[in-house]
User: Which sequence fits this backbone?
């Protein structure tokens, strides 16, 4: 408090406004942090999110189905197709990674005795 | 700076007003630039030595000759919902750069940005599919049988799971930074309280989005301290706009903060249900790919860094692990500061990095 009084100088209006602003932000910050940490906020937040997710789910599903059917009718790949392809590529990558590790091991064994 | 202070004994001239007007315009331009452009981050030279799906393993170019370097390499494992650039923020203020200068051979695991096809990735995959492969590559490149690992935030959680499940894999030293491991206290920290609500349903969220959008994670993190994050930071920047050092630091940090990425939906579900709600790791009921995770099996030397003012991972979430691990050599280090500040803030170079170096250096040869 005394520090704040030291900062308050009636001959320096800009400094006074700044000091008032800082203390306003500080109080507001404390208040908001307490608010978002409260059970009431957590409950309201969860309920709101839940209500939105529940109410939007049927629309989202029907939209997805419509898009997939349209893409299929046009002989175009859907997101699911790309996802499956990407999964297969990752599996291939893993096999390559295993082979790379085995090659490294073989090379090390081969180089080891020669160096010795 | 006051409007009534000038070199003419307190009398404000038209010239003074014009000068101040120009100065304010300059500040606004700087302010705009800082908000709308990206600073150059992660500039320490490095090479990609391994990739799998979106994940990459980098090796930083060592700056000291072989004979002056520690023998045991250090692997950095960052969280899965942010970019790892914060470990190498900007030249002159980079943890990676600092550790390179102190003789470490450093490797960084970047999990990458998950696409829709990665929405089923879980901690099981991160800890037992990706990490063991990364470590296999690291050992192959370095020829070292042992290594150290530094995990930050959710990276620390993944590192801990790995260290418990593969205690004989050569992990010698484990550094945990602000590790969210213990969720027994549901009232500590905003996240715990929010997700512990029975109405909060992570399954529905993951089902709706596939991957949880980065914007949602970012908003959640910012809402823990809404005034500081949405207003205070900009007011602070404006107040220090003439201080080039602070401005550049702010710009680099803001670039990292803005670089948001989604989190795999399955990992999110697992994080909320199995960790936050059921506290399985601490209860000893966590199963990863059919293997039970027992903290008592973690035997590596452990350095547990806790941020006293952490509002994302409150200290109570990182404290108890030290009593449960099987390590003989273990130490807790408490730092004044926040979740990110302790490693990337202005004081990190004096308050945190030297302690990590001292602890790790003594165990890296």
Assistant:
């Amino acid at each position: 408090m005394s520090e704040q009084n030291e900062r308050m100088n009636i001959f320096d209006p800009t400094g006074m406004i700044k000091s008032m602003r800082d203390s306003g932000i500080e109080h507001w910050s404390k208040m908001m942090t307490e608010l978002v940490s409260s059970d009431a906020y957590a409950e309201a937040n969860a309920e709101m999110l839940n209500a939105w997710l529940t109410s939007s789910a049927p629309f989202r599903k029907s939209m997805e189905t419509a898009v997939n059917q349209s893409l299929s009718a046009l002989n175009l790949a859907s997101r699911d197709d790309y996802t499956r392809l990407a999964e297969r590529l990752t599996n291939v990558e893993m096999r390559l990674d295993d082979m790379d590790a085995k090659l490294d091991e073989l090379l090390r064994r081969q180089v080891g005795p020669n160096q010795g | 700076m006051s409007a009534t202070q000038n070199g003419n004994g307190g009398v404000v001239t038209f010239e003074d007003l014009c000068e101040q007007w120009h100065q304010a315009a300059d500040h606004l331009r700087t302010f705009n630039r800082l908000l709308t452009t990206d600073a150059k981050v992660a500039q320490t030279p490095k090479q990609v030595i391994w990739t799998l799906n979106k994940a990459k393993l980098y090796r930083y170019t060592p700056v000291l000759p072989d004979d002056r370097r520690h023998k045991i390499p250090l692997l950095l494992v960052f969280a899965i919902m942010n970019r790892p650039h914060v470990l190498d923020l900007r030249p002159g203020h980079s943890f990676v750069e600092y550790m390179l200068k102190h003789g470490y051979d450093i490797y960084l695991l970047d999990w990458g940005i998950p696409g829709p096809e990665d929405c089923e990735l879980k901690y099981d995959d991160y800890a037992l599919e990706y990490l063991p492969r990364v470590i296999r590559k690291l050992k192959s490149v370095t020829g070292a049988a042992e290594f150290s690992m530094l995990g930050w935030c959710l990276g620390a959680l993944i590192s801990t799971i790995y260290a418990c499940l593969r205690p004989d894999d050569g992990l010698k030293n484990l550094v945990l930074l602000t590790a969210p491991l213990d969720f027994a206290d549901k009232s500590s920290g905003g996240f715990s309280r929010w997700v512990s609500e029975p109405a909060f349903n992570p399954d529905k969220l993951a089902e709706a989005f596939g991957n949880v959008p980065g914007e949602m994670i970012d908003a959640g993190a910012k809402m823990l301290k809404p005034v500081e994050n949405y207003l205070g930071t900009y007011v602070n920047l404006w107040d220090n706009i003439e201080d080039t050092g602070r401005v550049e630091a702010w710009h680099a940090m803001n670039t990292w903060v803005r670089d948001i990425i989604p989190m795999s939906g399955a990992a999110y579900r697992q994080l909320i249900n199995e960790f936050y709600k059921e506290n399985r790791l601490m209860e000893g009921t966590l199963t990863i790919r059919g293997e039970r995770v027992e903290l008592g099996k973690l035997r590596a030397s452990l350095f547990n860094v806790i941020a006293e003012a952490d509002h994302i991972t409150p200290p109570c979430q990182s404290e108890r692990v030290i009593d449960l691990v099987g390590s003989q050599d273990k130490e807790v280090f408490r730092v004044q500061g926040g979740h990110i500040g302790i490693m990337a803030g202005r004081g990190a170079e004096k308050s945190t990095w030297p302690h990590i170096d001292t602890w790790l250096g003594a165990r890296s040869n």
In short: The two ends of chain A are 76 Å apart (CA to CA). DSSP finds four helices and no strands in chain A. The mean pLDDT of chain A is 86. Residues 79-115 of chain A form the longest helix (37 residues).
